[in-house]
Design brief:
alpha/beta; 15 strands; binds pyridoxal-5'-phosphate
């Protein structure tokens, strides 16, 4: 028996009516495209008017297994009928199994669960200061990097450090300094015995899809160790297979003291996690931190299905192969349009075409949407491609052709 969805189907409001209501009733803190998405399957999305899109946004690097993945949808449906929420006053089976699996997948010892990336980062920030407090030698200074994105709550916002996002929210959380991403000398200079930790993305996502220079992450680990500071890795965007390894940091030998995960972790279901080494785990004893919804069985089953799929050896092999193909196609496109593009960068299925000053990335989103490809802007010059990790060569090629045509049309209009 099919359950009736609330106000959907032929009797539901049409696009114009929905957009009109959205304009009146939704907070205007976003600037969405004037399309109302209705359903998806794999790498395709369909709006309320039945228009089809190739989804290279994927909920901003979230829908790892694509839309309406049969195993993921069924598991969430079954768990929803069984048990959704119990609180952290009790254990639940799915969360315990997930904790074991996420530790196996990441090489960490313990996991905390929350509901978003910013919450995972916030927990990581609290863990960092509290770690030194528990050791009896409090430290408050934190080093982060320019063009970083760590989220929007007051702590995560201070770590993000972007003036545009911070304006009007003063006073900000104190003690956080931003250094140029990739500049180890700057880090050495800023370092001292009062630095609690260094927060870094192993590849910057929102900042423009910026891979670090060779040796940067290794250098940070060394410097942190020299000063008894922690290395805190934000893999909210780069983790869970996005760059072709389960964690992006696996490209190095380096391990962080803790890592924040979210975006891809639930495959579209909201779930975040902070995974950490035993060394730092005792910094958050009972009462020190928590979440009402965190670790609920519904979110946990979603993450379990995603982890199970991503950890199959052929899966990451395919992500790397598709990532290479996407990178190659974007590189070719960039070369064909030198007025608009400077090149391509990224790892795995986290990629960007680098644009020239001729056009800001945000102005490219609508022209691409009109050609049926959903992309996002990242940083000052990145047009980001972050498809579901199950993307195929055929889908990449179809999108690449549309992007190529879109750029040709834009170039002609310049
Ligand atoms: C998206 C993102 C966040 C914030 O995640 P939310 O789920 O939006 O709160 C934090 N860090 C990085 C690296 C991100 O890409």
């Amino acid at each position: 028996m099919e359950a009736k969805l609330v106000d959907a189907g032929p009797d539901g409001a049409n696009e114009a009516e929905l957009l009109s209501t959205a304009g009146k009733r939704l907070l205007g803190n976003y600037r969405p495209q004037k399309r109302v998405m209705d359903r998806g399957t794999g790498c395709e999305l369909f709006d309320t008017e039945g228009r089809r899109y190739l989804d290279f946004c994927a909920g901003v690097a979230v829908c790892a297994l694509g839309h309406a993945h049969p195993e993921l949808s069924a598991a969430i449906g079954e768990q929803a009928s069984r048990l959704m929420q119990v609180s952290n006053y009790y254990y639940n089976r799915q969360n315990i199994e997930l904790a074991r699996e996420i530790c196996e997948a990441t090489g960490y010892d313990r996991a905390f669960f929350c509901n978003s990336g910013t919450e995972a980062v916030e927990a990581m920030l609290k863990l960092t200061r509290r770690y030194h407090h528990e050791k009896g030698a409090p430290r408050s200074r934190i080093i982060a990097f320019q063009k970083a994105f760590h989220g929007r709550t007051m702590g995560a916002l201070a770590l993000t450090g972007n003036a545009k996002y911070m304006e009007g929210f003063e006073p900000h959380v104190q003690g956080i300094e931003h250094l140029p991403y990739g500049d180890l000398d700057a880090v050495r200079e800023a370092m001292g015995p009062d630095v609690a930790g260094i927060f870094v993305e192993p590849i910057q996502g929102e900042g423009g899809v910026n891979p670090p220079p060779q040796g940067f992450i290794e250098g940070l680990r060394e410097i942190a160790d020299e000063h008894g500071s922690l290395l805190l890795v934000d893999e909210v965007q780069s983790g869970v297979g996005r760059t072709g390894t389960f964690l992006a940091i696996e490209r190095t030998e380096v391990r962080g003291d803790a890592t924040a995960l979210a975006k891809g972790l639930g495959g579209g279901f909201p779930v975040g996690s902070l995974v950490m080494s035993e060394k730092v785990a005792s910094a958050l004893p009972p009462g020190a931190h928590g979440s009402t919804f965190g670790g609920n069985p519904l979110a946990s089953i979603a993450a379990r299905v995603v982890i199970k799929n991503v950890r199959q050896p052929e899966f990451l092999e395919r992500v790397r192969k598709m990532g290479d193909h996407l990178g190659k196609r974007l590189g070719e496109i960039a070369e064909k349009h030198p007025k608009l593009c400077r090149g391509e960068r990224g790892w795995g299925l986290l990629r960007a075409i680098v644009l020239t000053d001729a056009i800001p990335p945000r102005d490219m989103i609508t022209p691409m949407l009109e050609r049926g490809v959903l992309v996002t802007a990242a940083g000052a010059d990145g047009l980001r491609f972050s498809p579901p990790l199950v993307v195929t060569e055929a889908v990449i090629d179809e999108a690449a052709e549309a992007v190529d045509e879109g750029l040709s049309a834009l170039e002609a209009s310049l």
